[in-house]
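Researcher: Re-running this chain for the archive, since the previous output was lost when a drive failed. Same request as before.
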Amino acid sequence: MLELYQRALRSRLFLGSARYPSPAVLAEAVRAARVEVVTVSLRRESSGERAGQGFWALIRDLGVQVLPNTAGCHSVKEAVTTAHMAREVFATPWIKLEVIGEDDTLQPDVFGLTEAARILCAEGFQVFPYTTEDLVVAERLLQAGCRVLMPWGAPIGSGRGLNNLFGLKALRAHFPEVPLIIDAGIGVPSHAAQALELGFDAVLINTAVAQARDPVAMAGAFALAVEAGYAARTAGPIEARDLAQPSTPVLGSAFRA
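Model: Regenerated structure tokens:
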């Protein structure tokens, strides 16, 4: 079980709710992925009163934990204000905190992120910060009150997988007890499996499912990949070697003179 802010989860796959071909496809993808947490943008919910109400009703009917996010926010004030609105709309203290600092890569503004996290944690929010793999930033976020970190694998929507393996491995090793969820950049199920094999606790997927040719089938594939990656990690994989090692020992085997 994965425990996040005193909530126990069976699934280690989180699913985003944006950019699906239709609400019906989103609902089928959520069911196929067997997820318990779905991220929701307040901007999508508020884009139109009737459409927003219908979307929120769909999410409620799925019976999942909603993780509102501050997607598209570029300042501390904007992110904090959006978080407050999300808590009112979705009736949850959970918030995925995004403060974007660069438009081309959508890289987090880590300075604004830590300040917004400090404010929101002090106000009772349970913050899931979208961050980089930087160890110093991670330490500052934990000091601010965050109990979960969401480092990026690669830029949002890029599908490039885990760009900085060294940095991500260092982050995992440096904070062995902190739940770490890979957020952004995952493109195919093998990327998700790799993240779990490296010891990360979960992955959040949106674009790779929503924009797939068959989002429902892809959601199911990611569910299997996450389960396989976690099972492989707990089974204890062998260490990589530079030289070959025979799988069948030579000592004691039959031979002809």
